[in-house]
Design goal:
Layout: E1 6-12, E2 19-25, E3 28-35, E4 38-43, E5 58-59, E6 64-66, E7 73-76, E8 84-85, E9 87-93, E10 96-101, H1 105-108, H2 111-121, E11 122-132, H3 136-141, H4 146-151, E12 157-165, E13 171-179, H5 183-192, E14 203-213, E15 216-222, E16 227-236, E17 242-251, H6 258-276, H7 292-320
């Protein structure tokens, strides 16, 4: 069972109702508390007897949730209280809702700053929400699996690859796609019934992916005329499956590419799904030098596993004390 740590794309605003509602990150229960457009997220287990507060819990006027099991008033954002639960950092960018489990730079990796910039400069909308049968890390790992873009997504040519740690500890990979058109514009043209460019017309599209946790990656495409951003997240479910979510962003006021970008994100995830549904994630692997970025991502994930284990140990000690 995955112990959550770091940033997650936990949902979309239109899927989070007013009041108290349940959320799940692997084996960890959470609740969302929404009042108008404000969303807060807390641990979801009642400290009295373990009930999930998201199923029948009611928000009270004194910043508490009334537990559905015994009627206890559980104080929000007060983990040091006997009947209190911890609050987690939440950030909302357009339609996308993010939560961070864990404190400090090792959990944040600079994503708070990136979200602030994204919220002020771009229109962010939901594109995809889909259960997949692979562990959540696979959803983000694809951004670092360069050869899969050729085989699965039919990118005809990829030039160079540079995978390094970013200034805040995020993992970045930069490369260049050479295609007949920008990926999102090609899909927009298809939707509109426009003639596609001939294969001889080549366009260079810079590709920059930045993973801020094993479960969240922000990918930027730039064709020299415009740029677009795809935010991909994988939320681990209790049964080992993953809820994959994709949000897309374009600069404020530039909505011409939005429909194509959403359709392109759905198409790409559908192509990945064909592989994921039949993938043996427990089988042996024989990796080579083309998999160096994948190995770098897995090493990056290992940092979060260690931090999550340390956090879980601290929570257990606090509970015993």
């Amino acid at each position: 069972m995955i112990t959550p740590y770091g940033w997650f794309l936990i949902g979309f605003l239109d899927g989070i109702p007013q009041g108290v509602s349940p959320l799940q990150l692997g084996g960890r229960a959470l609740i969302a508390v929404r009042e108008a457009e404000r969303v807060r997220i807390f641990d979801g287990r009642c400290p009295h007897r373990g009930a999930h507060l998201g199923y029948g819990g009611v928000l009270t006027d004194n910043n508490c949730v009334l537990c559905p099991f015994h009627g206890k008033h559980i104080q929000l954002g007060a983990p040091d209280k006997r009947l209190g639960i911890a609050e987690h950092q939440v950030a909302v960018a357009g339609a996308a809702v993010f939560v961070r489990i864990g404190d400090g730079a090792s959990a944040d990796r600079g994503f708070s700053t990136v979200l602030t910039e994204l919220s002020s400069a771009a229109m962010v909308v939901s594109a995809v929400e889909l259960e997949v049968r692979v562990p959540s890390g696979y959803v983000v790992e694809n951004a670092f699996d360069i050869d899969h873009f050729r085989a699965v997504h039919k990118v005809p040519q990829i030039r160079g690859m540079n995978c390094v740690a970013g200034p805040d500890g995020e993992l970045t990979i930069r490369t260049e796609f050479v295609t007949a058109d920008a990926p999102w514009r090609a899909e927009a043209a298809r939707l509109q019934g426009a003639a596609s460019r001939t294969a001889e017309i080549k366009r260079s599209n810079s590709f920059l992916a930045r993973a801020y946790s094993p479960h969240l990656v922000l990918t930027e495409f730039d064709d020299g005329n415009s740029s677009s951003i795809i935010v991909t997240g994988g939320v681990p479910l209790a049964d080992g499956r993953t809820l994959a979510r994709v949000a897309v962003a374009v600069p404020d006021g530039d909505i011409t590419a939005l429909a194509g970008l959403v359709a392109g994100a759905r198409k790409a995830l559908g192509e990945d799904l064909v592989v994921w549904e039949h993938l043996d994630t427990d089988g042996p692997e024989r990796l080579d030098s083309r998999d160096n970025a994948v190995l770098a991502f897995r090493s990056f994930c290992g940092e979060f596993e260690l931090a999550a284990a340390a956090m879980a140990g601290a929570r257990w000690t606090d509970g015993v004390a």
